[in-house]
Specification:
The structure is a homodimer.
Chain A: H1 2-13, H2 19-22, H3 40-58, H4 61-73, H5 81-96, E1 100-122, E2 126-128, E3 131-132, E4 144-151, H6 154-159, H7 161-164, E5 168-171, H8 186-202, E6 207-211, E7 237-240, H9 242-252, E8 258-280, E9 285-295, H10 305-324, E10 331-338, H11 346-354, E11 362-367, E12 375-381, H12 385-399, E13 409-411, E14 430-435, H13 440-443, H14 456-475
Parallel strand pairs in A: 4-5, 5-6, 6-7, 9-10, 9-11, 11-14, 12-13
Antiparallel strand pairs in A: 1-2, 1-8, 3-7, 4-8, 8-10, 12-14
Helix pairs in contact in A: 1-8, 3-12, 3-14, 4-10, 10-14
Chain lengths: 483, 483
Amino acid sequence: MKSAIALAMFACACTPTGYTAATPNWVNDTASVQPKFPTPIADRYRDVAAKIIATARADRGAYAKLEVLTDTIGARLAGSPALDKAIAWAAQAMKDDGLEVRTEKVMVPHWVRGEADGAITAPIARHVGVLALGGSVSTPKGGITAPVVVVHDWKELDAKAEQVKGAIVVYNVAMPAYSEETGSGYGQTVQYRGGGASQAAKRGAVAALVRSVTAKSLHTLHTGAMRYDKDQPKIPTASITIEDAELLDRLASKGTVTMRLRIETQDMPEAESANVIGEIKGSEKPDEVVVISGHIDSWDVGQGAHDDGAGIVTMMQAGKLLKQLGLKPRRTIRIVLFTNEENGLRGGKGYAAAHQAELGKTVFALESDFGGFAPRGFGIGHKDKDALGRMQTRMTDIASLLRGFGASRITPNGHGGADIEPMAPAGVPQVGLDVDGHAYFDYHHTDADTLDKVKPQDISDMVAAVAVMAYVVADMPDRVDSP
Amino acid sequence: MKSAIALAMFACACTPTGYTAATPNWVNDTASVQPKFPTPIADRYRDVAAKIIATARADRGAYAKLEVLTDTIGARLAGSPALDKAIAWAAQAMKDDGLEVRTEKVMVPHWVRGEADGAITAPIARHVGVLALGGSVSTPKGGITAPVVVVHDWKELDAKAEQVKGAIVVYNVAMPAYSEETGSGYGQTVQYRGGGASQAAKRGAVAALVRSVTAKSLHTLHTGAMRYDKDQPKIPTASITIEDAELLDRLASKGTVTMRLRIETQDMPEAESANVIGEIKGSEKPDEVVVISGHIDSWDVGQGAHDDGAGIVTMMQAGKLLKQLGLKPRRTIRIVLFTNEENGLRGGKGYAAAHQAELGKTVFALESDFGGFAPRGFGIGHKDKDALGRMQTRMTDIASLLRGFGASRITPNGHGGADIEPMAPAGVPQVGLDVDGHAYFDYHHTDADTLDKVKPQDISDMVAAVAVMAYVVADMPDRVDSP
């Protein structure tokens, strides 16, 4: 199962890795029990935190920014004019908010979706909606028609290796319903989206279709990234709905099923893009940096409202409000809007490479990439186990300031976010904003990832949580992970 | 509001009229409290009911039938070859089950959906999915481009009468979330789907778009019936998603919005169709008839699994199991699978007309058209108020037999089902199978109305509830509404 795990890790890079681990055991702590630990950091920042929280929670600026981003610009896949527009808009908006702004060039993949369509041709005639996975090659012009082989895991793919030759493999792997105890199960199911095409191609398949990675469907197609193994033929691959995956499964259990499949895509030359950076310079230690971030690109469906419009407007507005309140933290607060998280992670990798020399002085990197929902706290990671413990103690202390609106949980789940992960090997503390994401995977990577799914108060609360955490970490005497 | 109410009534004819009233105040009564009333009828039938219930709840034949109907035949709009196929299949299946079977010819409308597409053209360029409402005319070839006027009720349409001239009217009327207290709110919102086009045309609009009538959306398009007033120009009309209705609303609140809209449909000559009838002849009073029914047609999207595949397989299997158990009720049990409920109600109207002479001896008509969910009891109606009271007493008595699986609630909501309503003026007692329909309007009239949304046990339980009720009503000495 090693290869499957590796594939899962890749696939997860395009979405919240470890999300499953981040969400279990949530308890709503708005009841505000007294902390069972001393809170020396919180005590020192109680007044300023109260001011930040009150300002942020009453403010609707982040939602207003999200409305511009989603309604005016919309979906913004790497290489698209819309992403260029989003980058220009975000840079200008942060300038207008009084931040020091620059962009840092990154080259990104430029994959373009064309038309796609499918149909069962035997034993019945039935339309099947298909949505190419990001990076998929095209079918031959006019499409392909082939028998269908349905599998439910890698083992069954192996067992059916003979049938798979010349066939369209359908991975009908069900994502479990979200539960507070076990999370979403995204990590277990997304591996078939990431690696299904090459695993099928290895056994002679002509195409691979993946049940959309979601637990809920109203005939909903979810796209997402996949990766071709360099040693295998590249075969076209797309998602189908839960409904159609189940239909194909039922039909295939009774006899031979054939499908017609047409996918048109274009792999264009790499395009220039950029990470957008806005800063509040530190008053005493400007070379020590607190990164707060999200990713500005999205898939080319829906509006990218939850994934990850919500994340970037949260960071932008946190910066604006701290500036507006006249707060001058000792360290620099740097808002980074990463480009190309979805289908390349070039923004995150590019940032880590370009800033390698200063990563030792990057005291903290925080990302929000689980959607725009009520904040619950933070998931944290660190390459050093002892440092993680110290980080947990201090962050639990600071996060107690957020108990009033239920955002004080600290979970040492080892994870921050895909874009900040390339900084982890250098020892940069990893922090992910943790939210009530039970509905996240219903919308994520679909046409339904739209502004109407976002509650304004949730985004304001996210700003409050991030602004307090970033400010205190930037201003407190010690590093959050220091001995 | 009289016209609006009339429109709503028409629109509801294509779907569960009065559904709102049928579902409130549901309490799960599986806890099986002792009845507070005497149960002379139930007492007499307790043993046979137990046998029917045990057999039906353990049987999966109804689900197996539903699988054939949905997967092999699929969607089956009036006039389509698929509906013909469904009719032939159902007749044969009931024959195979040992019932006396015939079909009764009915002419039906034959409307055919072509392609449809939409786009916002200013102030932004954005695709808008559209799904023509049943009966809509086409746009001119090449489509129309016009400014958008968004309204939220009839009053606002009136207030914006000047702007509406030459415009595309968008009815952005939100259906409330389902609640046990207030039901679905379908009745209040579907009136805009039914009458929106003609009301807009009356004020000079060139097209009308209706927010899909659902409370939940994953960018989901819901079709359904509409009706043109004979005095108004026929303008093209379609549904759009909640997401796009909200987007258009936000954009229109800030300035001028224009859209391009293309709808292709065909209005064909009326087609021959049929109601399918299967009978168990009464042993003592064969001319007294208990009708149990659903509708065999569906919309042309999804598979028509909940609407109303679940209803017809329930009735078919109830008939089969009663026959199989060798039960010979005094009166005739007649299974009627009505054609063309969705866009014409010709099956229901045709049946009432053809059987007018015997309606006085139709002691009971029951329909299931709220989807395939756990049964909760029955909604009842009668044109005579006193008769309704007597019916309520007797049905409460009989339904106490169903308490063990939570199907014993009797609600005098005045309603049975759209297809049996044409029999109401003749005094035929109206009965609707009441189910836990909280998710019904999520799937109804969409591509998501598919077999995977139906739980086999729910359908088995529906069979149990209907078989007991039908058998007892057909066998008991008195009519269910007699003095």
